[in-house]
């Protein structure tokens, strides 16, 4: 991009940025274009692009390919706003043109073969939103594909068998998928767990040891890694380790990385009241992390239905019981969503997300939000730990679980970490 998008203008590519304003020989308008593109006469970009779109999506009979009407309409709408002048250099459209030329259609399986690229993800989201492809859980599909390919790379048959059982039947099949599918963090953690398991098996193989020959020293050496400890417990449960080995239990150590709660509250106040502290999206998301310990994967999945007015107050549904919002935070959230024009994705956008992403129909990627929050001084994991640690010492676990949407057992462990004793809370309430 030669010029980045703002809230009122789109991204501008080098072609458009340096393009001259011509009097188009076709439409007669003064617009960006090329002076000698149409048989030596000036031709604006807005007139060029529809012809290219027709070449892409219209068959020999002059009709739009079956199932591609919504995509054709969306692309044409973008052209009329002058945002598709350099479409031939766009990776997603170039890929779409090639696949249609070679196969006549673009199913999920063909896109899967194109690798893990931004253009592939963008095109897939575009086709799903245009009803060309059926919607699927992308993170789960990519996780299954990763496990198949990663396990197949293992040469030793016994190691490959054990890793396959662990990856497919313990990691993938046991994942609890939410209403919007597998989250980014679940996807990442699952891949990391499979890699860690293979690393442990490869380590034993390099030392000439089988699982039954694994020693207590090897267990103790790797037990400090949480993902390895999970794998060791699975091996023990499957009776693949020697029966006399002792595998330590998991410990709850999430609260170790915390920040100064007073400094965190001061930062939250600045985000709430100082317009110069960041953009509306970053300020709103940052306050949800700093004050209510919300994970980024959950924040980006908030929809307009989660924010509503009841009994005169603005409420946000983070858990089973809606949370009353303070007026400054309510004002921030009610300014959402703020959309940027990301090419055809804007025409096919899903209007429900409070934090929309650049891909059609998708919410913002948590990693993108994480980098944005770091820019305003918020390390997401540490800030969230600090918030929940602070709340756990002052609010009963059952209330935290109900309002913030975390599991009751997790809330109880945080209360224990904070040294809070809520055993007498029930009798006092009664």
Short description, anyone?
The protein contains 21 helices and six strands. The relative contact order is 0.08.
Q: Can you describe this structure?
A:
- This protein is mainly α.
- It is built from 21 helices and six strands.
- It has helices at 14-18, 45-57, 69-80, 91-103, 108-112, 118-129, 138-152, 157-172, 184-206, 216-222, 226-237, 261-273, 280-292, 296-299, 327-334, 344-347, 366-375, 380-392, 397-404, 408-417, 425-429; strands at 21-23, 30-38, 41-44, 307-310, 313-316, 323-324.
- Strands 1-2-3 form a three-stranded antiparallel beta sheet.
- Helix 7 (138-152) runs antiparallel to helix 8 and helix 12 runs antiparallel to helix 13.
- Residues 426-430 have low confidence and may be disordered.
List how many beta strands DSSP finds.
6
If helices are DSSP runs of H or I spanning 4 or more residues, what is the number of helices?
21
| Low-pLDDT stretches | 426-430
Structural class: mainly alpha
- Rg calculated over all Cα atoms: 27 Å
The overall average pLDDT, rounded, is: 81
> What percent of residues adopt helix (DSSP H or I)?
40-55%
Arrangement of strands in the largest sheet: 1-2-3
Largest sheet: 3 strands, antiparallel
Q: What is the global morphology?
A: globular
Distance between the termini: 63 Å
What's the order of the H and E elements? HEEEHHHHHHHHHHHHHEEEHHHHHHH
Strand content: 5-15%
């Amino acid at each position: 991009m030669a010029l980045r998008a703002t809230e009122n203008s789109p991204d501008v590519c080098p072609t458009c940025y340096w393009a001259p304003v011509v009097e188009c020989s076709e439409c007669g308008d003064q617009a960006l274009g090329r002076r000698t593109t149409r048989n030596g006469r000036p031709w604006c970009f807005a007139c060029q692009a529809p012809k290219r779109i027709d070449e892409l999506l219209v068959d020999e009979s002059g009709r739009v390919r079956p199932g591609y009407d919504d995509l054709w309409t969306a692309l044409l709408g973008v052209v009329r706003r002058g945002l598709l002048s350099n479409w031939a250099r766009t990776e997603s459209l170039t890929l779409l043109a090639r696949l249609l030329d070679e196969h006549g259609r673009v199913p999920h399986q063909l896109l899967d073969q194109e690798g893990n690229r931004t253009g592939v993800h963008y095109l897939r989201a575009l086709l799903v939103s245009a009803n060309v492809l059926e919607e699927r859980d992308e993170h789960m599909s990519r996780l299954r594909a990763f496990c198949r390919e990663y396990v197949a790379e293992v040469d030793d048959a016994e190691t490959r068998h054990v890793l396959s059982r662990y990856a497919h039947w313990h990691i993938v099949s046991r994942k609890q998928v939410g209403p919007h599918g597998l989250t980014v963090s679940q996807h990442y953690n699952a891949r990391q767990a499979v890699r860690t398991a293979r690393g442990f098996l490869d380590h034993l193989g390099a030392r000439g040891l089988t699982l039954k020959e694994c020693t207590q020293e090897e267990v103790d050496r790797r037990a400090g890694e949480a993902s390895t400890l999970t794998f060791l417990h699975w091996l023990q449960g499957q009776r693949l380790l020697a029966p006399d080995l002792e595998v330590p239990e998991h410990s709850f150590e999430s609260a170790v990385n915390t920040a100064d709660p007073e400094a965190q509250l001061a930062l939250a106040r600045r985000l709430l009241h100082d317009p110069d502290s960041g953009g509306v999206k970053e300020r709103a998301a940052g306050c949800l992390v700093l004050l209510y310990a919300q994970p980024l994967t959950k924040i980006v999945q908030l929809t307009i239905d989660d924010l509503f007015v009841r009994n005169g107050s603005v409420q946000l549904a983070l858990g089973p019981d809606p949370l009353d919002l303070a007026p400054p935070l309510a004002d921030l959230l009610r300014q959402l969503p703020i959309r940027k024009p990301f090419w055809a994705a804007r025409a096919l956008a899903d209007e429900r997300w409070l934090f929309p992403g650049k891909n059609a129909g998708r919410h913002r990627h948590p990693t993108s939000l994480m980098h944005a929050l770091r820019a305003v001084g918020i390390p997401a994991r540490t800030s969230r730990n600090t918030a929940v640690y602070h709340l756990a010492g002052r609010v009963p676990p059952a209330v935290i679980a109900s309002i913030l949407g975390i599991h009751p057992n997790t809330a109880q462990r945080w209360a224990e970490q904070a040294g809070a004793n809520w055993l007498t809370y029930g009798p006092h309430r009664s």
